Amino acid sequence: TANSPYSVISNLSIESGVTLTVESGVEVRLEEDLAIEGQLLIESGVKIVMEAGTAINGSGLIQAEGTDSAPITFSVATTAGSTVVSGSVDLSNMATVTQASLSGLEYHRLIYCQFNGYQIDLDLKLDNYNQYKSGSLGRIQNCQFQNCQLQAEATRFEDSQIQSSVVNLTRVLSFADNQVDSSQISLLVPEDIDNKAISIEGNQVTGGKGLSVSDISRWAYGLSIEISRNQIENVVESGAAGLSVKPHSNPILVEGNTISNCGLGLEIKSNMIIGQNGTGQGLDQLTIRYNNLQSNSQSLQLPATMSSWQSAVPSVAVGYNWWGSVDAAAIGQQILEHQDDIQRARANYSPLLAQAYDGTETSLP
C-alpha cells in the first residue's frame, strides 16, 4: 500500500493463466479498461475507483472478498456537474466450464463488496448445473448494490443490501436475508438441476417493483422451491406485484410471507394450457398457505389460463391465509379470479385464518 493509489492509464489485460492480486488496503483508479482473461483477486479494504464509461471485462474470473470492517468498494469518479454514474463489470463471456476443469475451484465470488452506479454481468456458463449445486460457486454475500444493474448466475445471494437497482439472477439456489429497497428483483429457476431445494426466504422488500420468481425447469427431477418468511410492502408501481410467482412443473411452497400495502400483493402467472383434467399445468404444483395478505389494493390475482370455449376451470387452493378480515365477501373483493373473468383460474380461499399468522401454531386454526 506504500505507493497507493495506483492508476491504470492505458488498457490493461490479465492474460489467461495469470493471477493479479490487489492487496488489502490498496486503492486502484481505472482510467482505462481492464480485461480479465485470467484471475483478479481482490483483498479486503481495497478501493476500486473507475472513470465513468470504463469497464472491467473479459472471460476470466473475479474473486473479491472483503470483511465487515474492511469492505471492498467499487465506485465511479464523476466530474463536477456530471450526472453520469456508470461503471461496468462484464465477465459474461467465460468459456463453458466442464466437469473436468472444476476440481475444487470457486468461481465468481463477491463478499463484503460495495457497488455504486455499476452495470454488472457475471456468467458462469457451466455445461451442467449439477456440477455446482452444492452452492460453492457464484457466491454473492454481505454486499451492497446502489443504483446498479446486476445480471448474474449466483448459486447464493445472501445477507446483502440492494437499493434503487435492478437485479436479475439465474441458477439461484438461495436468495435469503437480503434488504431490498426501491428495486426490482427477478429470480429464474433453471431447468438443469435435480434433487435440490431452492430457498427464497427472510428477505425484506420495500417499494420498487417487488420480487418475481419464475420456474423454467421443465426437465428437473426432485426440485422444489420454497418462498417463505419474506416481508414485502409498499410495492405500488403500475404493473408490479409485491410477489409474482410463475409455476411450471415443480412444487412451489409459498408460506409465512407478509405482503402488505401493495397495489397488487400476490400475483400468480402462467402461460400454460389446461390439461384434460382441468388443471392448468403448473398451478397444481402450488401450495399457498399461512401468508398475511393485508391492506393491499388487491391481494391476489390468478392467471388467465383458458379460453371461454373451454369447460374445464383450474382451481388454486389459497385457504389458510389471513386477508385482514374473516368476511368472505370482503375477501372476494380482494381477489381477481374466475368469478371476475371467466378466462382466469378459480380461487378456493376456504378455510380462512381467523388472525394474522405470526409463525406459531397458536395463530393457526
Detailed description of the structure:
The structure is a single chain. Helix content is 3%, strand content 41%. It has helices spanning 99-102, 328-333; strands at residues 6-8, 12-14, 19-22, 27-30, 34-36, 39-42, 47-51, 55-58, 61-65, 72-77, 87-91, 109-111, 113-116, 118-122, 139-141, 144-146, 149-153, 156-158, 161-163, 166-170, 174-176, 179-181, 184-189, 197-201, 204-206, 210-215, 224-228, 231-233, 243-246, 252-255, 258-260, 264-268, 286-289, 292-294, 298-301, 315-317, 335-336, 346-348. The chain contains two helices and 38 strands. The strands form four sheets. Strands 2-5-8-11-14-17-20-23-26-29-32-35-37 form a 13-stranded parallel beta sheet. It is mainly beta and 365 residues long.
Q: Roughly how many Å apart are the termini? A: 63 Å
Number of strands: 38
Arrangement of strands in the largest sheet: 2-5-8-11-14-17-20-23-26-29-32-35-37
Alpha carbon gyration radius = 23 Å
Q: Look at the structure and give the mean pLDDT.
A: 81
Q: Give the biggest sheet.
A: 13 strands, parallel
The rough form would be described as elongated
Assign the structural class, choosing from mainly alpha, mainly beta, alpha/beta, alpha+beta, or little secondary structure: mainly beta
| Unreliable residue runs | 79-85, 94-106, 125-136, 273-279
Helix residue percentage: under 10%
Task: Figure out the total of helices.
Answer: 2
Strand content: 35-45%
Task: Offer a quick outline of the entry.
With 365 residues, the protein is mainly beta. It has helices at 99-102, 328-333, and strands spanning 6-8, 12-14, 19-22, 27-30, 34-36, 39-42, 47-51, 55-58, 61-65, 72-77, 87-91, 109-111, 113-116, 118-122, 139-141, 144-146, 149-153, 156-158, 161-163, 166-170, 174-176, 179-181, 184-189, 197-201, 204-206, 210-215, 224-228, 231-233, 243-246, 252-255, 258-260, 264-268, 286-289, 292-294, 298-301, 315-317, 335-336, 346-348.
